[in-house]
Design a protein that fits this description.
Length: about 450
C-alpha cells in the first residue's frame, strides 16, 4: 500500500452505519408522531417481519479503548428492572402493529449482554415472544464477554434459538491488555469458544482491533495466529476508533503518541489480512472476514450482503427496532435513537412514551444516496441509472470521484463504479464523495474517527 495515498486520504470520516450519519440527522424533520407513522408503514410493507437490536448496557469493568454506550457497575440487582423496562418498551411498539410481528433477527448487544444472568436473558426473550413469533429463517445472535460467558448462558440462549455468538477479543498481548484495562488470557477465549461449539453454535465470531495503544506488528501476528488456532467462522477486524471527545466513553490511560497511526496502522491491518487470507478467510466489505463456507461469504459472492447498525448481515430486513437505552432504530424511511441515560430511558417508558430523542426522516435524495453507500460498503460497487436523475448533484459527485479514479482506487464505466483492490482501504473516503451533508457543511467540531 502506497504511503502517500494513506497520507492523502487519512482524514476524519464516518463509518456509515447509517446515511445520513447521526451528526447530520435533521431533528426538525423528526417527531415521535412521524416516527410512529413511519414504523406502521414499514411494518405493513414488510408483512410484519422485523429485526430487533436489544441494548444491554452494563459492564463490570471499564475497558479504556471502548467507544460503546455502557454503564460500569457491579450491582446485578439492576438487571431485573432493566429487563422489565425493555419488555415495556416492546409493548409500546406492539400497540402500533395490527398483526403479530415476525422476528427475523435478534441481536443482543452492549455493553455486555453476559453481565445479565442466563435466567434474566431467558425472561427477556420469552417476554419478546409472548406477543410475537419467529420468522421462518430467523437468526439470533449475542455479544459475549469471554471472561464472563458461562455454559449456562450459552445453553439457555441456544435453547431459545440463538446460533451465533461474537466474543470481544481485541488483542492477546499483556502490555496492550493492561493499557486498555482488559485482562483476558487466550485460555478464557478458547474455553468460551469450545463451549459454544460443543453446545451447537454454528457461527462463532471474534472481534479483533488493529491500531490499539502500543500495538506492533508482532502483536497482531501473535493475536491472529492464536485466533487461527480456534478458527472462528467470522472475524471482525476493526480499526481502533479513537474518539476521546465523546462524553463519558472513558478512552484514557494512554497517550495520543502511544497509538499507531497512518501508514503504521494500516500495515497492521494488511499484515493481519494476509495471514487470514492464507488460512482461507475472505475479506467481507470493510473490516470483516469469514470462512469460505460461511453464509456471509456466500451472500457477498451473490451480491446479497446487507449492513445495518449491527454490522454486516445476510438478512434483508428493512425494519429494525432498537430497544434499550441509546439504541438506534431504522424503519428504512426514518432513523430514531433512544435517550442514552438509563434513568431517563426507564422514566419515559414508564410514562408510556416511546423513548426516542432524535431522529431523521429520509427524503428522496437521502434514500438514493443511502442505497449507493450501502452498495459500496457491502459489494464494493454501485451503479446509477436514469431513475436516479433526482440525484441532482451527480455531476459534482462524478468530478469528486475522478480523483479516486486517477489514483487507481476505483474504475468507472458507463454509470458503474467498482472499487479496485487498491481502493479497499479507502471505501469510507469513496462513500464520502456521495455524502451530500458533508458537502453542504464541513463539521467544525471533531465528530468522526480517522478513515484509515
Ligand atoms: C460491546 S463490545 C463486545 C461485547 C463485550 N462487551 C466485550 O467487550 O467482550 C463490542 C465490540 O466493539 C468493538 N469496539 C469497542 N470500542 C471500539 C473502538 N473504540 N474502536 C474499534 N472497535 C471498538 C470491540 O471489538 C468490542 O468487542
Ligand atoms: S469493550 Fe465490552 S466490556 Fe469493555 S467496556 Fe466496552 S462494552 Fe464493556
Amino acid at each position: 500500500m502506497s504511503n502517500s495515498l494513506i497520507q492523502k486520504y487519512n482524514v476524519p470520516g464516518p463509518r456509515y452505519t447509517s446515511y445520513p450519519t447521526v451528526p447530520f440527522w435533521d431533528s426538525s424533520t423528526f417527531s415521535s408522531e412521524k416516527w410512529k407513522t413511519s414504523i406502521k408503514q414499514s411494518f405493513s410493507e414488510n408483512n410484519g417481519e422485523l429485526s430487533l437490536y436489544i441494548h444491554l448496557p452494563y459492564c463490570e469493568s471499564l475497558c479504556t479503548f471502548c467507544g460503546c454506550h455502557k454503564r460500569i457497575t457491579k450491582r446485578h440487582e439492576l438487571e431485573s428492572p432493566y429487563i422489565k423496562t425493555l419488555l415495556e418498551e416492546w409493548k409500546l411498539y406492539l400497540f402500533l402493529f395490527e398483526t403479530t410481528p415476525k422476528v427475523k433477527e435478534i441481536h443482543l448487544g452492549g455493553g455486555t449482554p453476559t453481565f445479565f444472568s442466563a435466567e434474566n436473558l431467558k425472561q427477556l426473550i420469552d417476554g419478546i415472544f409472548k406477543y410475537a413469533e419467529k420468522a421462518d429463517d430467523y437468526e439470533f445472535s449475542f455479544e459475549g464477554h469471554p471472561n464472563n460467558t458461562t455454559k449456562e448462558h450459552l445453553q439457555t440462549l441456544y435453547n431459545l434459538g440463538f446460533r451465533r455468538v461474537s466474543y470481544g477479543v481485541q488483542d492477546y498481548n499483556l502490555e496492550i491488555q493492561q493499557a486498555i484495562h482488559r485482562i483476558q488470557p487466550f485460555e478464557n477465549v478458547k474455553k468460551a469458544t469450545d463451549l459454544a461449539r460443543e453446545i451447537g453454535y454454528t457461527s462463532i465470531s471474534h472481534d479483533l482491533i488493529f491500531g490499539l495503544p502500543f500495538q506492533k506488528m508482532e502483536h497482531v501476528v501473535d493475536t491472529i495466529n492464536k485466533t487461527l488456532l480456534l478458527m472462528p467462522e467470522r472475524i471482525a477486524f476493526y480499526s481502533y476508533a479513537h474518539v476521546p471527545w465523546v462524553k463519558g466513553n472513558g478512552q484514557r490511560g494512554f497517550d495520543e503518541y502511544d497509538i499507531p497511526k497512518g501508514d503504521e496502522k494500516r500495515t497492521l491491518y494488511e499484515t493481519g489480512k494476509k495471514l487470514l487470507e492464507e488460512l482461507g478467510y475472505v475479506e467481507i466489505g470493510m473490516d470483516h472476514f469469514a470462512l469460505k463456507r460461511d453464509s456471509l461469504t456466500m451472500a457477498m459472492n451473490e451480491k446479497e450482503l446487507h449492513r445495518n447498525f449491527m454490522g454486516y448481515t445476510t438478512q434483508k430486513t428493512n425494519m429494525m427496532i432498537g430497544l434499550g437505552a441509546s439504541s438506534i432504530s431504522d424503519s428504512w424511511y426514518a432513523f430514531a435513537q433512544n435517550v442514552k441515560n438509563i434513568e431517563e430511558y426507564s422514566q419515559l417508558v414508564e410514562e408510556g412514551i416511546i423513548p426516542v430523542f432524535r431522529g431523521h426522516v429520509l427524503d428522496k435524495e437521502d434514500l438514493i444516496i443511502r442505497k449507493h453507500i450501502l452498495n459500496l460498503m457491502c459489494n464494493l460497487q454501485t451503479s446509477w441509472e436514469s431513475s436516479d436523475s433526482i440525484f441532482e448533484d451527480l455531476p459534482n459527485v462524478v468530478t469528486a470521484l475522478s480523483e479516486f479514479e486517477n489514483d487507481g482506487l476505483i474504475s468507472i464505466c458507463r454509470g458503474r463504479l467498482i472499487v479496485n483492490e487498491k481502493g479497499r482501504p479507502f471505501v469510507r473516503n469513496i462513500c464520502m464523495a456521495f455524502d451530500m451533508y458533508l458537502k453542504k457543511s464541513k463539521p467544525e467540531n471533531k465528530l468522526f474517527s480517522m478513515t484509515v
